[in-house]
Every structure is written in C-alpha cells, then in structure tokens.
Amino acid sequence: MNFKNVKLIFLREMRDQLRDRRTLFLIAVLPLLLYPLLGMSFFQLSQFMRNTAAKVLVVGEEELTQHDWIPQLLVGTESERQFDPALFVNRPDEIARLQVIDDKTSPTDGLPKQGGTPSNSLDSARERLDRGDVQVVLYFPPGFGERLDAARKALMQREVNPESSVTLQLPEPQILYNSAKEKSRIAQMRVERMLNTWRNSVAQTNLRDGNVPLEAARPFEMLPQDVAEVQQRHAAVWSKVLPFILFIWALTGAFYPAVDLCAGEKERGTLETLLVSPAQRREIVWGKLLTVMTFSVVTALLNLGSMGMTGKFVMSQFQQISSLSGESALAMPPMISLLWMVIALLPVSALFSALCLACASFARSTKEGQYYLMPLLLVVMPLMMLPLSPGVDLTLGNSLIPVTGVVLLLRSLIEGQYLEAWPYIVPVFGVTLICCLLAIRWAEEQFQSESILFRESERLDLGRWLVHLVRDRAETPTFAQGAICSGLILILIFFMNLAMSSMATTDIDFRFFFQTTFILQVVCIALPAVFMALLFTSRRKKTLLIDHWPRWQLLVAAALLALFVRPLGLSLAEGIQQLYPVSSEMESQLGEVSHLLDSAPSPWLTYLLIALLPAFCEEIAFRGFILSGLRHVGHKWWAIGLSSVAFGLVHPILQQQIAAAAVGMVLGYLAVQTGSLLVCMVFHAIYNGLALAISELSKQASGGLVDTRLSWLFQGEAEFQPWVLVLSAMGTIAILVWLHRLPYRRTKEEQLQEARERSLINAIEA
After folding, report:
1. Domains plus CATH for the chain?
2. pTM: predicted TM-score of the whole model, two decimal places
C-alpha cells in the first residue's frame, strides 16, 4: 500500500468536508451551542422545580388535639398551617415542599371555605385527589385519638401489672396518593418519612411517661460511614456519564461524514473520478477512513469539552439554587481522566468509522445512507448501556465484549482503580483491534465490488419482485435470501420458545420434551430452509450440498475430526462458563432437561433426539441453504463466520451460543472444503453423541468409575487428561491441514475475489 496515495486522498477528502457547511455545523458549531443552550434551559426550568410545592390534604386533624400528651403534628394558625418543623430535622428542605391543606380550606387558594365546616368524608377527599387539587391525602379516621389513648393506657396498665394481657387495637392512619403521577408519588414518600418521625416521637412520649429509658427501645445506633473520598464519589458519577456521551458522539461524528464521502460522492458523480485514479481501492478506503476518523475524534472531543464547561457551571449554580444540604458541588474529573478518554477514543473511533464507511458504501444515496444509522445504534447502544447496569464490573469475560470492555476499562481508569484495570488492558484493546481490522476489511470488500459501489436506485414493485424471485430463480440462493432464512429461523424459534414457556407445567415428561424438540428442529429450522430452496432456487441439490455422494475418506475424516474436536469443545465450554457463569435459574432448567433425558425409555431414543435429529435438520438449514447463500458475499471465511454466528444464536443460552458458534466454524469449513452435507451430518451426529457419552460417564463418577477404570483418560468429572487435549489438538490440526489441500468448488464471487487478490499480489511484487 502506497502511503503517499493515502495521504493525498486524506487531504482531498478533508478539504472537501471542510468546505461543506453542514459538516462544519455538526462538528464545530453544534457542540459549542448545544450544551450552553441546554444549561440556559435548565435554569429556566429550575424556577418551576423550586416553586411547586405538593399539596397535602389533612382530614381529621381534630383527632390529634383531643389529648394533650399527643405530640403536635401541625403548627401555625388556621389560615397558615404547616407540619411541625421538628419533624424535618434531617431534611429541613422538605418543609417548603409540602403545603398543608386541611379539610376547612379551599383546594385552590388555601382560604377558608364559606361556613368553615369541615368535611370528614373520605369520598370527598378522594375526589379532590382524583381532580389533582391535592397530591396526597392524610386521613385520620374517626376515633383515632381515642384508640391511640387506649393503647397508651394499656401500656401503662401493663407497666403497673406486668401479668395483665391486653389486646391492643392500634389506630391506622391512611395516606392516599396517585402512583400514576410522579409529583404525588414523591409527596407520598416525603409525608411517610415525616409520619415515621412523628410516630417515633409518640413512642418516645409513651416510654418517657411509663418510666422506661429511651435506650431500651433503641439499644444501639447504626452509624454508616462512607470510606470513599469526595473526589472518588464524583469520579464514580463521571465514569458512568462521560464514556457513554463520548462514544455516542464518536459514532455520530463518524456517520455523517462517511455517508457524504461514499453515498454523497455517488450522487455528485465524483466517485468514478477517484476510482480511475492511480490509487488502489485499499488506499482509497484508508484515506476515507482517516478522514472519517478525524471528524469522529474531533466531534467527540468538542462535545466533551463543551459539556464539561457547561456542566461545571450548571452544577455550581444548582448547588446554590437547590441547597443540597451541605453537599459539595460536583467536581470536574481529574485531568488524567481526559488522557484516558482520548486514548480510548482512538480505537473506538476507528471501529465506528470503519463500520460507518462500510454501511455508507452500500447505500445508493445519501437519504438511504442516513437510514442505516438506526441499525448501527441498535447494535452499539446495548453494548454501551450494559456497563451502566448495576453489578456489571470489569472482568475477563466482560473485557472480551466489543465496546463494552472499553467502556468498563475507561470507567475503572476514571475512578482511579488502576490496579484492578491493568490486567484487562491487553484483552480489551486486543478485541477492539480485531474488531477494527474486521470492520476495515469489510469496508475494503465493499469498495472492491463494482455491483455494490454502482448500485442504482430502484423502486420496489412487490408483485414484480415476487414474480422475479420465482421466475428468474438462480441455481443457488442469494446472500439476501440466506440472511432472510436465518432471520426467519430465529423468529420461529423465539415464538416457539414463547409458546413453550406459556405451556410449561410442573409435570412435563419425556414425551412432551420429545414432541417440542422435534417440532423445534423440523418445523422451525429444517422446514424454512427446504421451503425456500424449493421456491427460490433452480438446483436444490446443489443448494443443499446433496448433489453428489462423498468419498469414504471424507466420511472417515469427519468422524475422526469429531472425535478429536470433542475434548477441545468440552474444555472450551468449561472456559466459557468460567468467563460467563451460568445463573442458578438456568442451572436448574438444565438440570430438569438432564432429568428428562434420563427418564427416556431407551438411550437410543435420546441419541436420536440429541444427536441424529439436530445433525439432519440443523445441517440442512445452516450448512445447506444459509451457507450456500452467504457464500455469494465473495469470501468463504465471511460466509463461514456469518453462518456460524447464526448457528450459535439458535441455542438457548449465551454459553451454548459461543461454543456452538466455534463448532459451527469447523462445520462450515467442512461443508466448503468437501462440498457435501453428509460429511457435516456425520461430524455433527458423532460430536453430539460423544457429548451424551461423556455426560453419562460424569454421572457415574460419583460411584468411582471414572477415578478407577478411566483415570488414564479423565482426571475428574468429564475433565480430560492433558495428554488427551494435546493429542486432540494435534489430530484436529492434521485433519484440517489435509482438508485445506483439497480442491473445493468456488462460487463466481469467490473466483472474482481470488483473481482480484492474485492481481493485487502481483502488483505488489512488481
């Protein structure tokens, strides 16, 4: 690759983008205006937040004034009533947020009603609450004071005569509120806290008058102590906010320039001029990638800086406005945190830029390119929001999740947890680098395909399109048809599992399990692939890889490969469970499935259900129709990888999905190199059958069978000896190398891709 050409393309694209007023507004002007405008809006709205006090209607206040010993709840004159300030010692700011309205006042202006007669009807109070005149109704029922006094006298009598047994009927005041309205719900919590304080004062009065020390009711005090420093608490807040905003703007800043550099150039007609230049397609991609990445980084940093300055000013003013009870203002994160964010921003911006560039090159127009932002957000947003969930910490398993690992690592660095973060730096950036390289490779593949770069806009006529699919059927399915088939299978499995969960009962037997598994495999997995092959392809046997009988050597190789891969797959599954532990609920469900398999009438029936049936149905779908369609992408490894991901997603839990995707890579490679679905079925059936055999041996381990007779093979329950794993790895590599030397049948797109790579290698050598 000629870096001089990359530099020239980079400078050309940067010059064109800087001339675009829309790009300059999005990158430079919008960040400088957005957050100050948001801060001004916050100050405008803060006055409404301060001056809106919740109205509390008190019904039956006279029940509290019948006896002098009852601590006062309300103070003030009849026209200006409020709760006793002594009840808000710990929360003095809540006094002004609760406006008392008794049953003698009007709900609108707080003035006495004509006649001044109280309304003790609870129904009228409910009506005022439903209308929104008040937010909370505090209701003391008739006889509240008498029952409270009776309870006090009973306690005093028990103090004089300890042997007397008196059943106390304690009074129960009611708090009515509307949980559908947030203001009413917040007011209810404040009133309840205040009533708890008043109830404690009533109890203390009874204890004091009964000559009981107050310490007897409260033998000890809880003294929680926060060992975190103020700066650490502030850093914990910023660590959840800054990475999310930084990466969201990095994605936004990369998307719009990428659309303009690809789809926009198609509309302007300047892309053809660039493609006929001496620069290679790969150099063009890298030049555009550096341009998009530059705008992504600049957009994220400008937004971060503008938000930081505005946030610091707003937080300092907000403390003065709302009186946060002595809490210090939210301090800005340390300067070292900015360095960590810049370092983390570079690989993430490269990943987002490559993804946006590939999506934009696929778009026919700028309008179509903008539609692709939502799918990208749907994929990226969960990865960035997962670290915000409580209990999600930086572990080895989480560090291997793209984007999520970077966010968790950045959180730990901002919080100053360097000792906890440094072991995960290599896996986080290693996974991010691999994802960047794959995304860049995808973008290069898009630019290498003339059919993608120069797709013309077309109007969809559904009737003609369906006629075209059936009448002009190709020999094998297209890439889109393979992707649609995998999506259809996943949707059917989702609704099947939903129906099974609604029908689940405690008395499920093996017959019910057999029926549901059979329907899942045949109807949800195999039938859609067979139906689409009959409807959309002209050579069904070639599509499903059953157009010829494989050589016996290939069948033997598949059987041996399954025998060698099984110990490695078991070790991989154990490692995955260590990285991502299975929940207790899922373990109980897996235990129920194991119990159902043990109750099978015959072990051969279990083998049929777990090994033979999935080997037939899943191979027809994923290594037959889906892989045949995905191979039109132009590279066999892309097709194998995508089909393996789809194969993993049909399994119920995450741990099985990862392990199944790894096995799917081996099965996909077998299908491509041998061109026979029967070879894949043999591997699949033996692989699953060995899982049943190993599971049976692990159950017998409790009786000592594994430790005595098979100790040369196992070193624990279903845990192989190290020499078995070494031998399995050597055997797997040997068979895969032998398969690699076999000639295989290539699609037209793969032939063009191979010729293009060969010409590129010749050009580099020349």
Report:
1. 3-45+230-320+333-451 (no CATH), 52-216 (3.40.190), 468-583+595-765 (no CATH)
2. 0.74
